[in-house]
Specification:
Strands 2-4-3-1-5-6-7 form a 7-stranded mixed sheet, sandwiched between helices. The protein starts with a helix and ends with a helix. It is 57% helix and 14% strand. The longest helix has 22 residues. Helix 3 packs antiparallel against helix 4, helix 6 packs across helix 8 and helix 6 runs antiparallel to helix 10. A hairpin with a 2-residue loop joins strand 3 and strand 4. It is of the alpha+beta class and 273 residues long.
Length: 273
């Protein structure tokens, strides 16, 4: 066995190592692109189908193996259609040189500054009864929805947020999507929830907030245009009648959990909310 390994290693040259590294880098970057969309769930499904095909072949389950092979063939043919937005985005980023761009993370000082700016902006919007929809991206990327709006990529400030949602301006009618401490896009379209048990008083903004929180792990701040009420949508649930202080307390764990809280604290926080 050792001699076989040595024999294989002796056939590997410098170009082979470079080839392997390049393929690994390309696969990693493809994963990063997919990770920022809901397409990651489809990739997991493909992996399950592939594993089922291999297991059925290993166990000599001929009928199941035949079905799995046919299914894989159909899926591979459908991939260009299913992944069309991701393929387009990958080519666009390649042309712009954004493939190797890294996402920034906030420290404690930056987190508090972001919370302050969000709280101040939401307070003004609520006081003046200006409807607003702020989507805070979490682990699941929102690039699919960013493409539907106007790309901004500006630093979050309360003045900036207020200006976005001023009535009769180009970006006010839609959602603003925040990634870390930056507004990535505004005027974005979100999916509406199909939950028919919701209060009839809830308008399109609230239904859109619940809809995106059902399909992703995003957290959404909603300001009612009719009443100025502040609400928070998360995991398909809507928390209404928040004030600025309670909103800040609901948002703070979203930014600190990954670096400063233990997993038990995080689970307790999710259960309590």
């Amino acid at each position: 066995m050792l001699l076989q390994i040595r024999g294989i290693l002796s056939t590997i040259g410098l170009l082979d190592i470079v080839d392997i590294v390049l393929v690994a880098v390309v696969l990693y970057k493809l994963y990063i692109l997919i990770k920022d969309t809901r397409a990651i769930a489809l990739v997991k499904g493909l992996i399950v189908l592939l594993m089922a095909t291999l297991v059925s072949k290993w166990l000599d389950l001929n009928v199941i193996n035949w079905l799995m092979q046919k299914t894989m063939t159909v899926v591979l043919v459908a991939l260009p259609v299913v992944f069309q937005p991701e393929l387009r985005r990958a080519l666009e980023q390649l042309g712009r040189g954004n493939v190797f761009r890294k996402r920034a993370f906030l420290n404690e000082e930056e987190t508090e500054l972001l919370l302050d700016e969000l709280a101040k902006g939401v307070a003004v919007l609520s006081k003046n009864k200006i409807g607003a929809l702020l989507v805070l991206e979490q682990d699941t990327g929102l690039n699919d929805y960013i493409e539907t709006g106007i790309k901004v990529d500006g630093l979050v400030s309360n003045e900036f947020l207020i200006n976005i949602f001023i009535p009769n301006t180009p970006m006010h009618d839609g959602a603003a999507i925040l990634r870390s401490d930056r507004v990535i896009a505004a005027g974005c379209l979100l999916p509406l929830t199909e939950d028919r048990s919701l209060n009839k008083e809830l308008g399109t903004r609230h239904r859109a907030a619940i809809g995106i929180s059902e399909q992703t792990d995003a957290v959404v701040i909603v300001v009612s245009e009719e009443t100025g009420t502040i609400s928070l949508a998360r995991s398909g649930r809507l928390i209404r009648y928040l004030d600025v202080d309670s909103l800040r307390e609901h948002l703070r764990p979203l930014f600190v959990v990954k670096k400063h809280l233990k997993i038990t604290d995080y689970l307790n926080w999710r259960q309590s909310s």
